[in-house]
Please model this.
Amino acid sequence: AQSVTQLGSHVSVSEGALVLLRCNYSSSVPPYLFWYVQYPNQGLQLLLKYTSAATLVKGINGFEAEFKKSETSFHLTKPSAHMSDAAEYFCAVSGAGGGNKLTFGTGTQLKVEL
Amino acid sequence: DTAVSQTPKYLVTQMGNDKSIKCEQNLGHDTMYWYKQDSKKFLKIMFSYNNKELIINETVPNRFSPKSPDKAHLNLHINSLELGDSAVYFCASSQADYNSPLHFGNGTRLTVT
Model:
């Protein structure tokens, strides 16, 4: 079975500071990994996805994530936080054997302070 | 030109009632899903259809019955609503392959009183 673990249900940063949201995965097959963002009262939007083409993946809004097989991690980063980045962020995994079943982590709420 | 649209946005009803949520996608995707997001924001898949055929059916009470009249529509009917059914229900769609991202609707907030 595939799963992802997000460390830290709440992360708070100052505007302009580095954003680091952690995600570790567990998968018996090469995983496909995703980061989604959810703004209040909205659905989820795709930030970026890893599909084995490159270990460093760039997404929208200045976010990027690095796939590290040795650490089974796929952490999300952004060099400089903006107030508009405040949202809930979800890491997710899918792969063979489960249809196109996307399994989500428990989410990390990002707060950006002045 | 909304990609995945679901109605209604809010649904308030009493225990024991039957209700439906409708979902439509105009992305030409083959696969559609229902996810449930609980009060702690945890997202869990309920059902998945590929070209009108049920392919994922998680351990969901049989009071929940999805219906897909065509590959652009996936509706969710819930019988005998219970307090614990209160949640936000998201419809999503994607292409059928594993690395295709899901496109989500804006959710239906169901409150059972």
Chain B has a mean pLDDT of 93. The two ends of chain B are 34 Å apart (CA to CA). The interface with chain A takes residues 4, 31, 33, 40-45, 48, 50, 55-56, 90, 92, 94, 96-107 of chain B (CB under 8 Å).
